[in-house]
Amino acid sequence: MNAAMVGAPDARDFLGIEALLGEEERMIRGVVRDWVRGRVLPEIAQWFERGILPRELAAEIGGLGLFGMHLHGYGCAGTSATAYGVACMELEAGDAGIRSLVSVQGSLAMYAIYRWGSEEQKQAWLPAMARGEAIGCFGLTEPDFGSNPAGMRTTARRVGSDWAIDGTKMWITNGSIAAIAVVWAQTDAGIRGFLVPTTTKGFRAHDIERKLSLRASVTSELILDDCRVPADAVLPEARGLGGPLACLNEARFGIVWGAMGSARSCYETALEYATTRVQFDRPIAGFQLTQEKLVNMLLELNKGTLLAWHLGRMKDAGKLHGAHVSFGKLNNVRAALAIAREARTILGANGVTLEYPVIRHANNLESVLTYEGTSEMHTLILGKAITGLDAFG
Which one of 1, 37, 57, 154 has the largest count of C-beta atoms within 10 Å of its C-beta? Predict the structure, then answer.
């Protein structure tokens, strides 16, 4: 084809990444994007400012088939991993808090039951969770043990035919709105996972207040005080730290995509602002320094989105290693945060108000940078992968 016949690149999809998506993936992207634009974007600044997450969103999201959408059976949609990633991108283009609700529900709580649970446990919980009728949370992190979950102090001991669980979990998304908590605890046989209905005596959840990040998300402390659950509450197939870490990799995969949703929102906001904001008698997009900022943002956004797409295809082909997920999470969240900060400078003082989404995304990304593995931990995971030497501890 003659180069002169090729159309100019799209400023919002410079590399034509949309063309790489399959029909189902484009359809899901459209459905989620429309829902976010119609339901989330008109209200999210107010939700963020007030620090609330409307409870009715869960049923709406369940109605869209987004909870556990990459799982098969039990009322789940059974989509590709790439389609799930695309949905995470569109959700986080609205707000990381909304994407976190979906990630924790599907990739942590539901996946734990799906991957490690008995058939009875799956039938009891997964269909209701897929519909958004029952919310789940994932109790792994503790006040003193985040990056080192092997040191957890929560314990579970046998009392007759039951288990008694004691301990505290911290920074738990969905904690106070959950119907079921997946709780990881030390036992005489090592780390095990337990399904704890939140109505169980001895279980309490308190919301963490005064957050300046992920405000449109429920973050809780879980307290288990002689919390008794029956013998069949244990996840039979999960033994050791490999159980929760496998779940974390599922959630991290969604973050690889979600972070690019935040980044895209910031870039598009900055681009629109720069072409309409006039200083010195012309749009600021006409100044060299502003163009350099926009170009740098575009480069990282498109590279990160291509990386997410590639990892999605690898996951669908069964070729994705945990270190690949760390690669994506480390790169894309770091890039997204840089894009958000750069976009804020283009908006000037307007960039620190909730009239625009940039400062909200920037604040959220500070949490995303830390949760599901800090940048330091993912750096060491990659370091071990390429050197063969363990630098942890």
Answer: 154
